[in-house]
Specification:
The chain is an alpha+beta fold and 286 residues long. The chain folds into 2 domains: 13-155, Sandwich (Apoptosis, Tumor Necrosis Factor Receptor Associated Protein 2, Chain A); 170-276, Potassium Channel Kv1.1, Chain A, CATH 3.30.710.10. Helix content is 27%, strand content 38%. It has 10 helices and 12 strands. The protein has helices at residues 29-35, 127-132, 134-137, 174-184, 203-209, 211-218, 222-226, 236-248, 258-267, 271-276, and strands at residues 5-27, 40-41, 54-60, 71-80, 86-95, 101-106, 111-113, 117-126, 142-165, 190-194, 197-201, 228-231. The strands form 3 sheets. Strands 1, 5, 6, 7 and 9 form a 5-stranded antiparallel β-sheet that branches. Strands 2-3-4-8 form a 4-stranded antiparallel β-sheet. It has a 3-stranded mixed β-sheet with strand order 11-10-12. Helix 4 runs antiparallel to helix 8, helix 5 crosses helix 6 (211-218) and helix 8 packs across helix 9 (258-267). The chain is globular. It starts with a strand and ends in a 10-residue tail after the last helix. Residues 19-149 form the MATH domain. Residues 188-255 form the BTB domain. Pfam families: BTB, MATH_2. This is Speckle-type POZ protein-like.
Amino acid sequence: MSGDLAAVSWGYTEVSFQKFTYSWTIGNFCSILREMREAIESPTFSSADRDKNGWSLKIHPNGMDEESEGYLSVYLTLLSCPRRPVWAKFQFWIIDSEGEKTQGMKSPRFFRFQQNQQWGFRKFIPRDSLLAQEPWLLEDNELSLRCKVTVAQDSLGFSDETTMPGIQVPRCTLADELGELWENSFFTDCCLVVAGQEFRAHKAILAARSPVFRAMFEHDMQESRTNRIEIHDLEPQCFRAMMGFIYTGKAPILHSMADVLLAAADMYGLEHLQLSRAPIKLIDLS
């Protein structure tokens, strides 16, 4: 063993997700819907008393542009943030007179919010639909809008450096070894069928990485009884890329399939894949 001293540096960061919900009630909404075109903004809100990120909701009663005219447009705005940018995804619902959620719509991925930037839905619901459903939807001439926000944040990060005798520390190969289990179908115990093609996999790994797969195997469902899962709405190429991430944690490079892959990540609860594949240049939702 060499007597030379070598410095070994290491670091660790864990991404966590903070979720919170805000409800906004708007009075005299039928009159607003029929007579007003200006945007209406909610009071400022945050996730908790100590949270310095300030948010607001905004509606456009008759759309925000020519293309969305005739629709109610809804947006989430980041008003203030000491640490920029903020990555978040969101869902909107209307709460009906029975207290039930209706007309739900959610963003397909995390969006990058800068201060005073907004993301949302230009065509949330047609104005005519709201007016036609007025007797049961708008009790006391009010609209109740609810928004659920999920914010990605670095909850834990630290590093260290130690000086020790020059021993070469082997590179961690766990991801490669798990990937080899997937690529070579070693010791598999379930089958996934995609567009008629069969892929062998491991229930323990699928359940550990995806809450959707875990639910299939935990409950008395057909998938649990037969160890065979039919995967719909995915092509084999995108499915292979998703499974590669499940086994190795490495986000694939698929520029032409980014939207499909993000939708698959949302479908199977792979939040870290959604965040890693979020594009830098974002477009408005409609």
